[in-house]
Amino acid sequence: MANETEWQPITQLLSQWRIRAQYAQYCHFAATNHLRKLHYYLGIPSIFLSTLVGTSIFATLEQHGGDRWMRVLVGLISVFAAGLSTIQTFLRFEERAERHRTAATQYGKLGRMMEQFYLLYHSYEIMELHRLISEIREQLDDLDKNSPEIPQHIWIRRAELVSSGTQAYEISQCASSAKNESNA
């Protein structure tokens, strides 16, 4: 079994990785929320305006062509509604939000795996510890490679929360409590 001297660098490394995974998880969930809001901000007006245009066209036609300005207004609203719909389709907010949600879930899963590892570390041989560390690193690398890019304003907001102390989390607290429980 690994002794405390062998465990110390692993604890520090996993603590850094856990914080990084939590940071990425938070940012991906924030990106999910941001993109879903954008989806609704464009989608709801698009639906409303398209409906308005559809009913206005029928109302205008019933009045035998209607007022010239009314036809221009209906035409402009129609173009605007089509533009909103096109932008929403092109930017794929909902699809991108789902990719961020999946990445956040995966980072959370990996973080829980690291926390569980802290609870059980005392039962591993040093070679097994190194194998598990390598496995965690590979999973982090894969997540980093395959996850969508997080918008810069979300990274900045997260950094502000961490520096203010409102979102700080240290996995070493988990390790300390696990060690105390195993010694009891």
Give descriptors for this structure.
mainly alpha; 86% helix; 6 helices
Short description:
Helix content is 86%, strand content 0%.
Which structural class do you get from the secondary structure elements? mainly alpha
Strand content: under 5%
Rough outline: rod-shaped
Mean residue pLDDT:
79
Poorly predicted runs: 168-184
C-alpha-based Rg, rounded: 26 Å
Largest sheet: none
Helix content: over 70%
End-to-end C-alpha gap: 18 Å
Number of domains: 1
How many individual β-strands?
A: 0
Q: SSE string, helix = H, strand = E? A: HHHHHH
Number of helices: 6
How would you describe this protein?
This protein is mainly α. It has one domain. It contains six helices and no strands. α1 (4-62) runs antiparallel to α2, α1 (4-62) packs antiparallel against α3 (93-120) and α3 (93-120) runs parallel beside α6 (171-183). The two termini are 18 Å apart. The model is unreliable at 168-184 (pLDDT under 50).
What secondary-structure arrangement, pairings included, does this model have?
Elements lengths: L3 H59 L5 H24 L1 H28 L5 H21 L5 H13 L6 H13 L1
Helix pairs in contact: 1-2, 1-3, 1-4, 3-4, 3-6
